[in-house]
Each structure stands twice: as structure tokens, then as C-alpha cells.
Design goal:
By secondary structure, this protein is α/β, with parallel strands linked by helices. It folds into 4 domains: 87 residues, no CATH class; 31 residues, no CATH class; 84 residues, Four Helix Bundle (Hemerythrin (Met), subunit A) (Up-down Bundle), CATH 1.20.120; 193 residues, 3-Layer(aba) Sandwich (Rossmann fold). The protein is built from 13 helices and 12 strands. The strands form 2 sheets. It has a 10-stranded mixed beta sheet with strand order 2-3-7-6-8-5-9-10-11-12, sandwiched between helices. Helix 1 packs antiparallel against helix 2, helix 2 packs across helix 13 and helix 5 crosses helix 6. About 17% of the residues have low confidence.
Amino acid sequence: MGFWKKLKERVFSSDTKTEENIEQSVQSFVVSEEPKIVQHDNETNVTELTNEVIEIKSTDTYNVENEFVIQTINEEKRPIEVKEIKSEPNHNLKSKPELVQKSEKQIIKELKKKNKQEKKEVKVERKQLQSALTFSKDIKKLSKKYKKINSEFFEELEDVLIKTDMGVKMVLQISNKVQKRVKPNSAPESINEILVEEIYDAYDSGRYDPRMHYKDGELNVYLIMGVNGVGKTTSIAKLANNYAMNGKKVLIAAADTFRAGAVEQLESWVNNRLTGVDLLKPHKPGVDPASVVYDGMKKAIDGKYDVLLIDTAGRLQNKVGLMAELEKMYKIIKRTIPKAPHECLMVIDATTGQNGVVQAKQFAEVASVTGIILTKMDSTSKGGIALNIKDVLNIPVKFIGLGETVNDLVEFNLDEYVYELTKDFMEDTSEESDE
């Protein structure tokens, strides 16, 4: 089996795995020989949005403001009373298994409904990613222009790859490897699968894990960085939503006190578009960001939060000031949790191309960046920037932003990324080879 078929198989295996999970879930629901009915009393769940004002004493180390307004969602829940009723032998056994059987059908119905929704979400993500990553038209034009590959063909191929923002160094590396593997005077289509494999290997050479560091039962601290206008605040909100929708308790610390409107933007997200996410904000504009981080750590630990997302200032004009500010934040975080922050994510606007790579390089000089969030991938036809970032900085892309809605932040998947980047011209090649 060729590389392309293996790649395609991996991309679409998620649907099969979902089906298998459904079957396993159904099989695990076994009706016991002795029927059992569990009755649950109705649960009272009252959710109320409140503003809590916390008085904080100033310390000698930090210039902490006297007051912070913390927006929280308080939930009062009455404990669920569970009554277990076991059937007695020889006492109307016919009716009770019927009730259990009905419950089994309901569970199967819910599992299938969930499966259908997951499939729908996967299709939407693929459609968005496809619109964001496409350079196949240029590859097709190149294949039609040349009957046989030669030095001029590879020069034009390199130009096509450079236009995707892969970066000159990465492009030359890929081109040289393809030339070594292909036979002279071959048809242009013969390089397609080799090209896909080399693009894949160029990113995967470091074997980086794109998954976020996360541990259950602990506070996971994530520091988010990026220049103004790249979608940093929006990415924080979407990231918070991802964890909240998975049942995690999330707190955002609005430590970008430099940009006007940064705190208000986060507040708008939390109030109007997020559920189960709390926001810690300074009482006054221009507060020392380190003091917000200090109080955010305290609030997150005392409140037993699972995730703390820290927004930071997005200025690069004064790298010395930024370095000092980040260093102060690091000290505060590590004083409480020595291994934190667990992730330092850099947000980059994919539409800025090489400028985005330059920004990432500048931030990497003053901070230990562990991952990249690529935003506005739905607004660019140049999808190669992820390869360039990895090549220049050795930093993996962890998320891709594909739109403005709260659910439009997806985990980076190398298989799907390369598949969507190359599928248009590869599908044509596959069809021709099958004929």
C-alpha cells in the first residue's frame, strides 16, 4: 500500500473508530439476570451569575490592586437521592425486565445520536480545512505544462511551494529529496505521491506531540502570547470553551492590561458566548499584569479549577519590557506550581505569512514557547506556514482557527493537514491510475 492510501486510511479511520466505540458501549450495557431498577429524584440546579468582590492585601513583592472583580458562575445543586429497588424472585418478573429493556433501547438511541453528531462535526472541520489549505491548482497546472520532469519543472515546483509560505529552506529540502527519489524524464504525475510523503516527513521529522499537556486532578496553567490583532483573545475564549465543554472547570485571568479593550473583550465572551467559564479581571485599567497572574493562581487553586488560561500583553516594540514582564509572571507562577506554566502558546495570524514567522521567532527569544495556535486559516490559501514554523522554530502547531464561532478551534492533526493540503491533485492522480 502506497503512502497516499495509508494517509487517507488514517484520516478516515476516525469514523470507523467512532462506530466501534458505539458498539462497545452498547455491548457493555448488559442486563443482569436479576433485574434492577434505579430511580433518580429530580435534581434542582439553580445557576446564578454574580459579581464577587475580593479584597486582596498588598504584598511587599507585588503591586497588587486593592480590589479585583471576579465574575463567577455559582451553582447550587441538591444532592441526588438514589433509591435502589431489587425485584423479588417469583414476583411479577415479566414487567420489570420490560422496563430495563426500554432503558437499553434509550441508551442505544442516545449513543447513535451522539455518533451522528460527531460525524457531522468531522465533516464540517474537513470542509473548513479544505478551503483553508489548497495549492493543488498550481500543481495541476504544472503537470499539464510539462510532459516530462526536468530542472525547469523543479524550479517552478519550488516556486509553487514557496507561495504556500512553507519557507525557502523547507522547500529546497523537500525539492532535493523528491529529485533524488524520482526517475529522470518521468511524467510529472509520478512525483505526486513522493511529494506528499516528503511534505509529511518534513514536519514529522521531530516526532512532536501536538497534544496539549493536561493532567486530571491538577491545575493546568497555560500562558497565551501574541501580538495585537492576531486573534489572541478570541483563541483564549475558544480554548476555554473546548475545556469547559469537556466538563473541566476553567478560569481566565485577564492579564493583558496594556491593550485598551482587551479585558472587556474577554468579559463579553464570558458573559454572552461561553458556559461554565469564569473570568478574573483587574478592577482598574493599567494594573500591573503580574498582580493579575498572582491573584489568578490563588483563585484557581482555592477554587479547585482544572485549567487556568492567562492572557498576556501583545506588544513587541519593547522586547526588554516584554521580557521583564514575562519573567515576573513566570516567577509568580513557578513559586506556586514549580512545573508551571505547563504550556506557553503563541498565537499567529496565518494570513500574515512570513511576518507571522518573524513574530513567532521574536517571542521565542524572550519566552519558552511550547506550541502554536494558527488563526484565520479559513481566510488564507497559503497553508504551508505550519511547516515553516516547525522548520524555523522547532515548535509544533497545536491548534488551528477556522472561523469566528466558539467551536472553530480544532486540534492540529498532521494526517488531516497534509491530506487536505494535497488531496485535490492526489485524488486526480489516484483516479487516473485506477483507469
